[in-house]
Q: What sequence folds into this?
């Protein structure tokens, strides 16, 4: 072999190794038709139906990371970390109800169904939330006895499907949440194919076993805020006006929707941005319908202020809340509380590297797993399989959730104290600046270091 | 059809219609009593509370007799608005007039009987019990029903039994378009004309067990002038239970 | 989202009490329509060769006498009937002439309605307030439409309120929410139809105006709605002889009709009909989806 040949051989070897890692010189991926897009097109060509998955929007959209707090300096004074108070409590639903919710922290657990989640996972959510004095929410499928037992404060959802709906659970609940929509799929419903129902879930939902589940997109007995008002009145009558009535909407036209929810009689509005998670829906819905959470909050608060209802009808915001910083920012923009869904089950252990082997068996990997509707979750969280669910320890899960919630509250308090606030609710938009033009326009706060808020005439002193 | 107290439905009653002479009857006149007081009273009935109630002058009020959970009888004299007897458990509620939308929505058990017509979404998502409508029901009768039995002496509007999961809907008159669209396992019986069937809803054979079922339902509804043999049965073809590519157009 | 009421008199007695009855209907519909209210009253026909115009000027203390004097000079006109922010003039001219003149001489005034008998009044604020400010209970007439509004996507102003005029002695009220009104508005603007607001109901009214202008009958124009308008609606249209009702084919928005020897009525909820004299004995029914219903004085038995 000549020197020339052996060089060539070495180059071939290098190239083969590189190609096992997926890249060779000259390989350039298209931004439009990247590997994921190609995979999806070819899957559609094979299967003839849209892709369904869980989780929330995965592509990057403007979010709270683009906002920063202005901590104390010369003109503002911070509060000491331990001796000087920074309170965190919130009351939800004192507009009409005889028994509003008193929560110790302004972070609630969003609606997730038994059916989407295993029984032990729902139990863990209840345990964790109760340990820190906050609420959980039932989902599409109704209230299980275990959930009522383990949640000290339980919000009961009224969805278009009305699976499992009954007046006893309405009366056992601490609040009622009428779901008009959710962030992952505002206007959604339709036929959800490929989602298998387990026997227990089928029983609770009065459905035949083993079939694809179809969900309605509108409520069966009312359409529109004028008739919603009459429905809310009925629910109050059935529960003798004891419980707060929440109205949950996916973020699309938040100014109008919040105003209409208030006019229809809502005690609390829950606003879920497009990043909000779901157990399962069409990928095109998740990624292409609805507006980012950060863009929805100010219009929602505007609507409340224009009706003189800010802090009288409370606003709970969800959709991509991940940390105490996100919580603090949402509160600063005017919300009364934040709500977590995906983050809660991640805290329980969803997508944890400890299950990597199990994820590999179902052709995915920790951090990527989103086919929650298939019910094969090795973490035992988004499954109805008894063997898988048995892997999940609800007590440990509850402790994990409680730890995570406490951490978020401490983080939010840290930020709030640095801004000189003795209550998280005293955070305000003027405590924030933006890193990008989009974030500045959406949150209506100035671009950092400038007085510019795109789209307004306002001049802000920096 | 129409307004005014009818001859009195005898469905669910052992003694016939209520008369003013019956001293064990609690009468509530909504002309001078708030609805809240009526419903609170109906919810508070315990072992020794009044077992028979009369409600006067509803004048289209909403949520009349909603949320009852007691073995009592309630006669409502006049037309009601939306959600009359919503989520009813165990009670017998008779409306001597018409109902607005959502009559007996999510009924759990017991009986709701309507002398006149019902508006849209009658019996919506009902999980048990019996709803009888002597007049017509409008669109979406029995929508998403989950075990209730609904018997309509007249006709029903379009999209009736939409996504009907469980239970029986009997229509002595005609049915509007898209009957039983996306139906699951509910059984539908229609005597008159069906304007059109919805996705996955097909006519099925009417065999002896079905005739017996129908006879029983008609009897429980107090309807004795309709021959079960004149009905046709409809139900799910079950093609949409598990997705096949070629059915995509039906969704 | 809103409440609709319509009342058509078949007797002198009812005509005399038309305003009082309509007021009670509107009050029953104020829960579902708290933001603003409006009525179209058909009454007191002007003499042949004249027209009635209903004008809006929200500023209090407006000089209506000055307008009367100018109108008298140009065409001939009597004293206006002033109710709150509106004034109704009978002008000795064709409606198109009067409107053109008003647009030029008094551009700040809005013409709410024009025709032989129609008078449209509407204002933001609660229905209760509307009834008081416009002394609705005093009004008599042959028939009337009323509306209470819960604004969905456009603002709460007087101009966004219903009824919307769609031609001489014609008006529209709407309960529901259209979904393709923006493109239709664009098309209609190109055809010369004017719009003052971003309101979807105003587009439906403009659509009817356009179809009627192009020679369609009222029935044909309403049938056109089924083809061309997308969304949810119960429409009630006021005409010189009566009114028309149309529900979209899906029919999620409510509608109730009732009739006695003295009246025919229409409302979003039965409780608005229950307040009418003799309602207990009325025949009550629901209009079917996707079907045009027209009631006119000559057709009443």
A:
């Amino acid at each position: 072999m000549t020197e020339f040949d052996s060089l060539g051989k070495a180059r071939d070897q290098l190239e083969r190794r590189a190609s096992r890692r997926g890249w060779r010189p000259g390989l350039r991926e298209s931004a439009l038709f990247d590997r994921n897009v190609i995979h999806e097109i070819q899957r559609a060509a094979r299967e003839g139906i849209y892709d369904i998955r869980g989780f929330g929007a995965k592509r990057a959209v403007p979010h709270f990371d683009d906002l920063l707090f202005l901590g104390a300096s010369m003109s503002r004074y911070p509060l000491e970390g331990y001796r000087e108070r920074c309170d965190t409590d919130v009351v939800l639903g004192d507009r009409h109800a005889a028994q509003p919710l008193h929560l110790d922290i302004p972070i609630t657990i969003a609606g997730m169904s038994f059916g989407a989640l295993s029984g032990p996972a729902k139990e863990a959510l209840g345990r964790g939330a109760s340990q820190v004095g906050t609420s959980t929410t039932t989902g599409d499928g109704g209230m299980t006895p275990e959930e009522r037992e383990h949640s000290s404060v339980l919000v009961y959802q009224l969805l278009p499907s009305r699976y499992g709906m009954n007046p006893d659970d309405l009366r056992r609940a601490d609040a009622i949440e009428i779901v008009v929509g959710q962030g992952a799929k505002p206007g959604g419903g339709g036929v959800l194919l490929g989602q298998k129902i387990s026997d227990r879930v089928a029983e609770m939902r009065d459905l035949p076993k083993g079939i694809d589940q179809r969900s309605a997109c509108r409520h069966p007995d009312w359409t529109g805020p004028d008739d919603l008002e009459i429905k809310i009145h009925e629910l109050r009558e059935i529960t003798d006006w004891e419980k707060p009535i929440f109205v949950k909407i996916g973020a699309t036209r938040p100014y109008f929707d919040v105003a209409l929810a208030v006019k229809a009689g809502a005690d609390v509005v829950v606003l879920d941005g497009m990043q909000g998670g779901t157990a399962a829906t069409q990928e095109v819905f998740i990624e292409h319908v609805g507006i980012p959470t950060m863009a929805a909050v100010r219009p929602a608060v505007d609507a409340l202020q224009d009706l003189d209802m800010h802090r009288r009808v409370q606003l709970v915001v969800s959709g991509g809340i991940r940390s105490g910083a996100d919580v603090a920012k949402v509160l600063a923009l005017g919300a009364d509380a934040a709500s977590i869904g995906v983050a809660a089950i991640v805290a329980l252990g969803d997508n944890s590297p400890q299950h990597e082997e199990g994820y590999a068996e179902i052709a995915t990997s920790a951090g990527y797993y989103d086919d929650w509707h298939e019910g094969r979750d090795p973490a035992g969280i988004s499954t109805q399989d008894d063997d898988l669910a048995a892997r999940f320890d609800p007590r440990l899960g509850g402790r994990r959730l409680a730890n995570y919630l406490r951490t978020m509250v401490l983080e939010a308090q840290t930020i709030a104290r640095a801004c000189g606030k003795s209550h998280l609710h005293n955070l305000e938009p003027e405590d924030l600046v933006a890193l990008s033009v989009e974030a500045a326009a959406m949150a209506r706060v100035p671009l950092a270091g400038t007085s510019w808020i795109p789209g307004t005439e306002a001049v802000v002193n920096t | 059809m129409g307004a005014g107290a009818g001859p009195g439905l005898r469905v669910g009653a052992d003694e016939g219609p209520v008369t003013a002479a019956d001293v064990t009857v609690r009468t509530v006149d909504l002309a001078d009593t708030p609805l809240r007081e009526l419903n609170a009273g109906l919810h508070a009935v315990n072992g020794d509370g009044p077992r028979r109630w009369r409600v006067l002058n509803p004048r289209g009020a909403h949520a009349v007799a909603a949320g009852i959970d007691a073995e009592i009888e309630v006669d409502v004299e006049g037309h009601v608005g939306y959600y009359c007897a919503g989520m009813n458990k165990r009670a017998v509620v008779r409306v001597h007039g018409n109902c607005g939308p959502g009559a007996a929505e999510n009924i759990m058990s017991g009986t709701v009987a309507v002398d006149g017509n019902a508006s849209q979404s009658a019996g919506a998502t009902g999980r048990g019990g019996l709803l009888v409508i002597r007049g017509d029901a409008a669109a979406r009768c029995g929508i998403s029903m989950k075990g209730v039995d609904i018997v309509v002496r007249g006709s029903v509007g379009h999209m009736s039994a939409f996504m009907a999961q469980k239970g029986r809907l009997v229509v002595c008159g005609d049915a509007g378009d898209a009957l039983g669209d996306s139906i699951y396992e509910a059984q539908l019986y229609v005597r008159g004309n069906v304007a059109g069937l919805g996705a996955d809803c097909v006519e099925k054979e009417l065999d002896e067990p079905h005739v017996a079922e129908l006879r029983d339902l008609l009897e429980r509804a107090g309807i004795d002038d309709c021959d079960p043999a004149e009905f046709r049965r409809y139900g799910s073809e079950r093609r949409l239970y598990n997705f096949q590519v070629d059915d995509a157009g039906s969704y | 989202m809103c409440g609709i009421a319509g009342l058509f008199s078949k007797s002198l007695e009812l005509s005399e009490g038309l305003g009082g009855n309509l007021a009670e209907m509107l009050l029953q519909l104020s829960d579902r329509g708290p933001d603003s209210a409006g009525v179209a009253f058909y009454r007191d026909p002007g003499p042949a060769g004249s027209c009635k115009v209903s004008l809006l000027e929200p500023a209090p203390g407006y000089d209506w006498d000055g307008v009367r004097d100018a109108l008298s000079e140009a065409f001939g006109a009597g004293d206006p009937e002033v109710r709150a922010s509106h004034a109704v003039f009978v002008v000795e001219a064709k409606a198109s002439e009067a409107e053109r003149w008003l647009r030029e001489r008094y551009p700040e005034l809005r013409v709410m309605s024009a025709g032989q008998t129609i008078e449209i009044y509407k204002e933001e604020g609660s229905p209760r307030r509307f009834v008081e400010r416009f002394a609705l209970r005093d009004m008599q007439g042959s028939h009337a439409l009323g509306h209470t509004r819960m604004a969905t996507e456009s603002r709460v102003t007087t101009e966004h309120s219903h009824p919307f005029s769609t031609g001489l002695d014609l008006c529209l009220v709407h309960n529901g929410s259209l979904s393709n009104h923006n493109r239709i508005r664009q098309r209609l603007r190109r055809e010369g139809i004017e719009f003052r607001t971003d309101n979807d109901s105003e587009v439906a009214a403009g659509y009817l105006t356009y179809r009627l202008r192009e020679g369609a009958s009222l029935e044909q124009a309403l049938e056109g709605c089924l083809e061309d308008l997308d969304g949810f609606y119960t429409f009630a249209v006021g005409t010189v002889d009566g009114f028309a009702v149309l529900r979209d084919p899906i029919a999620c928005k409510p509608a109730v009709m009732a009739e006695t020897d003295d009246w025919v009525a229409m409302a979003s909820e039965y409780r608005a009909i229950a307040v009418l004299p003799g309602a207990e004995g009325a025949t009550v029914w629901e209009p079917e989806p996707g079907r045009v219903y027209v009631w006119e004085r000559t057709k009443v038995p």
